[in-house]
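Most newcomers find our protein records easier to grasp once they have seen one. Nothing more is needed to start thinking about how sequence determines fold. Here is such a record, shown just as it appears in the course material:
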Amino acid sequence: MMSKRFNRSGSGAAGVEFALVLPLLVILAFGAVEMGRMLWHHEVITKGVRNGVRYLTRVPVTCTAVGSGGTFSSADTDAAINLVKTGTTVSGTPILEAYDSATFDIEVDCVDAAGAGLSMGTYMPIVRMTAEVPYSDFFIGMIGLDDATFTVTHEELNVGE
């Protein structure tokens, strides 16, 4: 008699279904939050690199020959990297903790201005900055994935002062 009543009763079915689906829902929720954090970090890095290059496009650069690399003063490159890391040209607290182990590469490519149809002088310096910023988070490590590295590059024409 008791077994017939147990077979017809569905009062615990919803609880069992919820218990089976809950881990999947939790993983999906944490995954969505983690994806949002990753996109936010990438956007912060992209905007920072863009601002650093824009700073360097207003600073005088030395170009000696077409195809050669131009140079900035070390104070100007330090100011540009600080602008990426802190939002100001002076040292301060980094916007992202990952900037402590990030690498920055600044290059200047001197292109023939006349060959490009421009009358802005002999050389046209193109400024390029590349940032490699590691990304790691608790949830990524918890599910067994390796840390990611964001590589962001931006380049613009140097117009000087």
Summary: The chain has four helices and three strands. The chain has one domain: 12-157.
